[in-house]
């Protein structure tokens, strides 16, 4: 049974925790919620969402191929996961003594090898694919221009607030030409609910004018062109490429950075360095869907301040288990969106989304 299959049945002590801690000699407080919050605040200038267009392939053949390679060599983590599944119904159990904890030459406190970390990382990705088979971008959009605009607006606010704002925006300015010709004050008024509306209006007017003048009113499908647009950084560009053009990309937003550091996939804080290190762990075909899954998990379970460890489906694979609430009942109450039985962020979610749509502006 997979770890995901046993989720919520109980959250055993992480078998990789001691190893990973030993790997860097770092205590649980290494990436504390407070530190992460501060970092997230600094780095979340253009908070991104993720891709749907890459979904079909990511959990498909390439994932299975990757999984196959991992399974051919993996021992410890998988054994631990299997054990977790077998015992999950009985509630939390120590995984002490599992193969993972006793991997050859890697006793408690010993560093986890890079190879073992890669196997564990790929295992987590597969587990998350089971938990969130419906993972998708959480910004509503109908074309690349709408996604670009929505992603720029998502800086320093929630995707929900953006989704509640963009219907009126795109009704008034459906194309780059329309938006470039907008009266700034009118544009500002519409996007006011997303915050920082004057700066965002300047970006939208600027990028719309460049799209109109230099790209024939179309959003370019190249990173080099996208990052030259006003208000568009590498993260926003990757979101657009991955979602609207099917070009694999990693979205290193505040959730992604926090989780991959908690999982000890990297210790980097700089988003570009994080992107480079995570890109080396996974095949390109996985990048977009991996981003969706990690961000989904960060928003629903592994929160910055209070991770719901006691209700976390990948707890047996997480070296930071225990950083948050471990009591299953209390942890269950921390779950958000569809995991907590609440509406999602999109007003128009995909058909396979198991939760309910978000309410329109003013109704929440
Ligand atoms: S909630 Fe986060 S920190 Fe806690 S076990 Fe899950 S992934 Fe690890």
Automatic annotation (TrEMBL):
Gene3D superfamilies: Helix-hairpin-Helix base-excision DNA repair enzymes (C-terminal), Hypothetical protein, domain 2. It comes from the Bacteria. Binds 1 [4Fe-4S] cluster. The keyword Repeat does not apply. Its EC number is 4.2.99.18. SUPFAM superfamilies: DNA-glycosylase (SSF48150). HAMAP family: Nth (MF_00942). This is Endonuclease III. It comes from Streptomyces castrisilvae. The gene is nth.
């Amino acid at each position: 049974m997979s770890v995901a299959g046993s989720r919520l049945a109980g959250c055993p002590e992480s078998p990789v925790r001691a190893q990973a801690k030993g790997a860097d000699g770092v205590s649980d407080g290494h990436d504390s919620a407070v530190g992460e919050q501060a970092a997230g605040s600094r780095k979340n200038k253009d908070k991104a969402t993720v891709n749907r267009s890459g979904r079909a392939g990511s959990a498909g053949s390439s994932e299975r191929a990757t999984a196959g390679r991992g399974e051919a060599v993996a021992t410890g983590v998988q054994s631990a996961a299997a054990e977790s599944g077998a015992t999950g119904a009985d509630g939390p159990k120590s995984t002490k003594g599992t193969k993972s904890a006793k991997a050859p030459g890697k006793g408690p406190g010993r560093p986890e090898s890079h190879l073992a970390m890669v196997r564990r990382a790929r295992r987590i990705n597969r587990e998350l694919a089971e938990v969130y088979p419906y993972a998708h971008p959480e910004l509503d959009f109908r074309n690349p221009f709408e996604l670009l605009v929505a992603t720029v607006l998502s800086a320093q606010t929630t995707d929900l607030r953006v989704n509640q704002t963009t219907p009126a925006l795109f009704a008034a300015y459906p194309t780059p030409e329309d938006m470039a010709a907008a009266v700034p004050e009118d544009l500002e008024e519409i996007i006011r609910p997303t915050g920082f509306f004057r700066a965002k209006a300047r970006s939208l007017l600027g990028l719309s004018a460049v799209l109109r003048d230099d790209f024939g009113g179309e959003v370019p499908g190249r990173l080099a062109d996208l990052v030259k647009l006003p208000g568009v950084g590498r993260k926003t560009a990757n979101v657009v490429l991955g979602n609207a053009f099917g070009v694999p990309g990693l979205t290193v937003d505040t959730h992604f950075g926090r989780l991959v550091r908690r999982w000890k996939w990297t210790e980097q804080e700089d988003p570009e360095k994080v992107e480079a290190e995570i890109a080396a762990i996974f095949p390109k075909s996985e990048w977009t869907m991996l981003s969706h899954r990690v961000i989904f998990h960060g928003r629903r379970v592994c929160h910055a301040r209070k991770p719901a460890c006691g209700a976390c489906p990948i707890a047996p694979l997480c070296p930071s288990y225990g950083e948050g609430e471990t009591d299953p009942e209390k942890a269950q109450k921390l779950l958000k969106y569809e995991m907590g039985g609440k509406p999602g962020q999109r007003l128009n979610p995909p058909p396979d989304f198991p939760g309910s749509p978000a309410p329109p502006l003013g109704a929440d």
